[in-house]
Write a structure and sequence with these properties.
Mean pLDDT: 89
Oligomer: single chain
CATH architecture of one domain: Roll
Structural class: alpha/beta
Largest sheet: 6 strands, mixed
Strand order of the largest sheet: 8-7-6-9-11-10
Low-confidence stretches: none
Radius of gyration: 23 Å
Length: 504
């Protein structure tokens, strides 16, 4: 095309044309390049290697990358603009996105419904036949907002500094594309879907619904409007048959969103006689403890370690990630997604690695490496640094402290808990034995249960509630108390106590 510049991507074998001066950050995300820090040049996770052509090594890049890296062609995509033809090695990562095929009881309805799990990193949408409960089609995607930061606080910062409309439009357009694709591909979709139910954390709720995030950017971190939000598809710019109703389910507290409400529905925690626990481990760790009489919930800033963030060679659970570490013959052995050479380590692999390090004596209960000056090599080129271990300590201490405080506030002993549900991708893949070994989950292994994508399952269940949905949601919210851990005078001391690893 006249005036445009060709970019070739290896090993994908794909190419496209862009305008001169186009930032690489604007065009590489769909091909698997990550921008966890939102393009601030802090994390080095958006590295690409120039195979042919030229990309200027800016002053910012020279301060972040080594001279050796620069010499062999490594550049930061977030600080690079296209000025000439390029062939780039992007080493695409194929991310596994957790869907749901769990059977559940329902009262048949008519027509079609669509359930959407709007995650901070990933999106999942399923089309259901409401007469049979059968899933007719599934669509997944990465959340396009990730280009502006992997964690919710990065997006809160961008939103209150003038980027709210950009973030709102990005997510509405992407979910609209998934929904339209589902409807177009369904043989019975001549009349379209009758309802779209969306769940997500509080920040995703606000961004999608166009609600200001400023109150969530500072203490006491209280949402102004966190209830059920109802739209017509046309209100969102979606052109769908029948102009279906779009319902974003209500949140439970400042950083406990409708994805957790959906998790309560999915696990039937609100119907249980004995107390049970629901934990969703991510950048914000959400914890729910309760039964049919009373429910307590809280969120804790666990940080991104459970998702591989802030780890020297951390990455999502994708091709090339070390996802498991075991000890055999007094040596650490790793499993890599895809079976090829390792590129880094994901959250579940990190938990395994630290548990293995404790067993081998490479890591002390204080969290110190036996030789703090030298990283622990797992397998070339992946090593575990002292800083990596500290990041995991911070994350696990936040969750463990939150659990202790909620149990105490509810007046429930740890031995009274009959089931611990682990929600989400990390909970689905983490080794329960390793999680117990590092002190993350101090419960008998037999009661800890990976629960899969409870957010998506709960969203599907809500499609069958029809007019009873608002009543059911309101009933759960009425018996649920949201606690601010930051405001609890015991949290800091408990957090410090939980920083160490169990001696055995």
């Amino acid at each position: 095309m006249s005036g445009k510049i060709r970019i070739e991507l290896e090993p994908l074998g794909q190419s496209f044309d862009v305008e001169p001066g186009t930032p690489l950050q604007d065009v590489l995300f769909p091909y698997g390049v990550e921008f966890p820090c939102g393009g601030r040049g802090r994390c080095k996770r958006c590295r690409v290697r120039v195979l042919e052509g030229e990309l200027e090594a800016t002053a910012e890049q020279r301060s972040i990358l080594t001279a050796e890296d620069l010499a062999v062609g490594w550049r930061l995509a977030c600080h690079s603009k296209v000025e000439g033809p390029l062939k780039l090695d992007i080493a695409q990562w194929e991310t596994t996105i957790l869907t749901d095929d769990t059977a559940f009881e329902f009262t048949p309805a008519s027509g079609l419904g669509i359930a959407v799990d709007l995650g901070t990193t990933t999106l999942v949408a399923q089309l259901l036949d409401l007469t049979t409960g059968r899933v007719l089609a599934v669509r997944t995607a990465l959340n396009p907002q990730v280009v502006h930061g992997a964690d919710v606080m990065s997006r809160v910062e961008l939103s209150i500094s003038g980027g709210a409309a950009k973030l709102r439009d990005l997510i509405r357009e992407e979910i609209g594309r998934l929904v339209a694709d589902l409807v177009a591909g369904a043989a019975a979709a001549s009349s379209g879907a009758s309802t779209v139910a969306i769940v997500g954390n509080t920040v995703m709720h606000h961004l999608f619904c166009g609600i200001g995030l400023e109150p969530l950017s500072h203490a006491p971190f209280e949402a102004v409007r966190d209830g059920l939000e109802v739209f017509r598809a046309s209100d969102l710019g979606w052109r769908l048959p029948g102009d279906p109703e779009v319902r974003f389910l209500p949140c439970l507290g400042s950083f406990v969103g409708s994805d957790v409400l959906a998790g309560i529905l999915a696990t039937r925690l609100h119907q249980s006689e004995p107390p049970v626990v629901l934990i969703d481990l991510g950048t914000n760790g959400e914890i729910v403890i309760g039964n049919r009489e009373r429910i307590l919930c809280a969120s804790t800033a666990a940080g991104p370690a459970f998702e591989g963030g802030k780890i020297s060679m951390g990455m999502r659970a994708a091709t090339g990630a070390i996802t498991q570490v075991t000890v055999e013959d007094q040596r650490a052995h790793v499993h890599v997604i895809g079976g090829g050479p390792p590129r880094g380590i994901c959250g579940s692999g990190l938990v395994d690695a630290v548990a293995a390090g404790l067993e081998l004596g490479v890591i002390r209960p204080t969290g110190r490496l036996r030789d703090a000056r030298t990283p622990w090599p797992l397998v070339e080129p992946v090593s575990l640094t002292q800083s990596d271990i500290r990041e995991l300590q911070l994350a696990k201490a936040a969750i463990a402290a939150g659990l202790r405080i909620l149990l105490a506030r509810l007046g429930v002993a740890r031995s009274d808990i009959t089931r611990v549900y682990l929600a989400g991708a990390f909970g689905n893949y983490v080794n329960r034995g390793s999680a117990r070994r590092i002190g993350l989950l101090d419960f008998p292994l037999e009661i800890v249960e990976p629960a899969g994508n409870t957010a998506l399952l709960g969203a599907k269940m809500s499609l069958f509630l029809a007019d009873r949905g608002e009543q059911a949601h309101a009933a759960i919210r009425a018996r649920t108390e949201h606690l601010s851990l930051a405001a609890d005078e015991r949290f800091l001391d408990t957090y410090v106590e939980e920083m160490t690893f169990p001696a055995e």
